[in-house]
Amino acid sequence: MQEAQINTARSIYYSLFSKFFVYDTDYNRYLELLRIIDILKENPLNNEIAEAINRLSERLTPQSQALLVQEYDDIFQNPETPTIRMTASFYDEQVESGQKRVQMLDFLAKTRIRRDEAQFTEYEDSLGFICAVLSELATLVGNGENQYKTVQHCIYADILNEFVDEISKEIYEHLSADIYKDVIVILHSFITFERLYLEVSPVKRKETPAEVTNESCDAISKEEAARRARNKAAKAAAQSNETCDPFITYDVEDEI
Fold first, then answer.
1. In a domain, 52, yes or no
2. By C-alpha distance, which of 39, 46, 137, 120 is closest to 86?
3. I need a surface site. Which of 78, 135, 183, 240 has the fewest CB within 10 A?
């Protein structure tokens, strides 16, 4: 039962990131983001996440999503400011639609999951879509579909893990980052948990920003850190019945 709860919690975190890293002005999707923030406030993985979640909860109100939309635009889209690229291919080859996108398409071909082109125009190796896929796969594995464990591991190890530290550093250090600083604090701590859970090492040539280093794990063994993180993830999972991301679709023949 705990394994299923952990995967539910993993799905919640990935869904949170997918909503922060996909441009969307749909107000209902924004309210879903706030709902996830409220869930994570109840059982955060560690104190850093707890503090960041509380700050996000104070800044992001149900009355308006304008603050979040403006900051997203300044960091990722505004031609008048330095903009951050979002695809794994860019960080791998400095081009869009490169080998990492090809890899991601190959991994998706082993699943029923496809990009809903009507809803999502970015490439399959964009950060938001990767997080949406990993959220869905965590849900499927948590529901007992263990055939997806391997592809889940491969997408994390070969795609996300390869550039998540670098893009996190760029976002955290962006002059327009305020809300997104706290998003990166949460992402960094969660990635630390994922590496323990999936037994994947960081990419050594990359450096994570010192400001978001998870010091709480330095004083204990990796095994103890993993045990504590699993327990907290299981508690968080009990708070939600997360639904599929709207940017994900399925092959018609295998629709569930």
1. yes
2. 120
3. 78
